[in-house]
Amino acid sequence: MDILFLLIPLSVGLAFFILAALGWAIYSGQFDDVEREGERILEQD
Question: What whole-number distance in Å separates Cα of residue 29 and Cα of residue 37?
Answer without folding.
Answer: 13
